[in-house]
Amino acid sequence: MIGIVLAVVILCCGGGALWVGLQARVEQTAYPGGTTGTARVVSVAEELTSRARQPASTSYRPTYEFTTTSGRTVTFTDMVSANQPPEIGSTVTISYQESNPQGARVVRGWHGWTDASVFWTFLAALVIGAAGFGFYKVVIRRSRPATT
After folding, report:
1. Which fold would CATH assign to domain 30-107?
2. What span, in angstroms and rounded, lies between the C-alpha atoms of 113 and 105?
3. Which of 38, 44, 84, 148 has its CA 20 to 30 Å from the CA of residue 55?
């Protein structure tokens, strides 16, 4: 019984990791029915992160500016930080909804699959595979009749 509960818990953890990975991917693709355009980097904020027993690391969070199809100028800060500072004036492809241009997001390459989304989805596959294997060993294999 404990094995079944453990397999279910691990499976739920895997499902959660899969959701996080796919959500990270969705947040870096174009809005369905949204408008796609070009934004330029207007500033870059430097963020210093310190962790226990590790050297501090610096990441960079760019702020972009673009003009909507209605002529309104909008500025927004990227949700994703970068390891290297983007060049001021460089451009990226963005997607936004006409009803909420402040909610614009940068459209990332490879159809939205970035390091974070790949990591969480891969982790989910490992955890779900481990749960499936554990379930097989505990429930299915033990319930088979012995062969002589």
Report:
1. OB fold (Dihydrolipoamide Acetyltransferase, E2P) (2.40.50)
2. 14
3. 44
Ranges of each domain in the chain: 1-29+114-148, 30-107
- Please tell me the least confidently modeled range out of 8-12, 96-100, 116-120, 128-132: 116-120
Query: 82-85: long-range contacts (C-beta < 8 A, 24 or more apart)?
Result: 83/59, 84/60, 85/44, 85/46, 85/60
Which residues, 6 or more positions from 38, have their beta carbon under 8 angstroms from its beta carbon?
Answer: 66, 91, 92, 93, 94
